[in-house]
Amino acid sequence: MIAKDLSSGVERLGEMIAEASVIVPFTGAGISTECGIPDFRSPGGLWTRNRPINFDEFVISQEARDESWRRRFAMEPTFAAAKPGRGHRALASLYRSGKTPAIITQNIDNLHQASGFKPEDVVELHGNTTYARCIGCGKSFDLQWVRARFEEHGRAPDCSACDEPVKTATISFGQAMPEEEMRRATELSQTCDLFLAIGSSLVVWPAAGFPLMAKRNGAKLVIINREPTEQDDIADLVLRYDIGETLGPFVGN
Ligand code: NAD
Known about the structure:
- With about 250 residues, this protein is an alpha/beta fold.
- It has nine helices and nine strands.
- Strand 2, helix 5 and strand 3 form a beta-alpha-beta unit.
- The two termini are about 25 Å apart.
- The model has no long low-confidence stretch (mean pLDDT about 95).
- Nicotinamide-adenine-dinucleotide binds next to loops.
């Protein structure tokens, strides 16, 4: 059912939250646009400016690694300045209320942790861009370490332990999904009775399979996204409104 206006939609969402026992939120880039981080697919989004660099390209090409890190450093002022928005804060309130055991996110911006979720309760399907990792041995590096070496040698550095390339701790197109995160997201989707898909175009797979999985397992599905998605037809409630406006009333509850 598509909410006919914002206030009746928010009221219905409030009832569904009150009736549910286990609520699992699933978020995409749209929840962070009000924090100043552009999404991929909206007009002016990141894809209208940069072609994504695939994992294979990153592994084989120094030039691709250099370009990838240049883009990441260019985004640093944006990521560093971003604070949790109303959507993040509303979900943190649900978490504190005890009904939300954990959150599944496609986002890489660390804003759910910043809003109050314990890091172990944020299931990051696509990793995290606020630190780096060696793609060979998995050793972690902070971004300052990468930047200092990039500036010193004029090229993206390799791991100090094993010489393999160092990449933001994100999952790129063409890279395998993280197994433990996929397992936890599956479990959460199968055991909740209310699933909230927020700010995702639901076109990136396998992530987009989780709302579907929750619905098939008997959960009610709510989609909050200002543009239509392919799963609107199966949702119990669709709110095509701004996320901050929609979730703002739930901050602090
Ligand atoms: P997407 O860009 O494909 O879709 C975002 C959706 O959010 C769009 O349909 C857009 O209409 C909607 N939206 C944007 N702002 C909104 C608002 N204020 N209110 C309501 N709706 C709004 O994003 P996706 O589905 O998450 O897939 C993109 C991939 O890009 C993800 O895998 C993620 O890893 C990555 N990404 C992450 C970030 C981040 O961490 N903040 C930013 C860009 C991309």
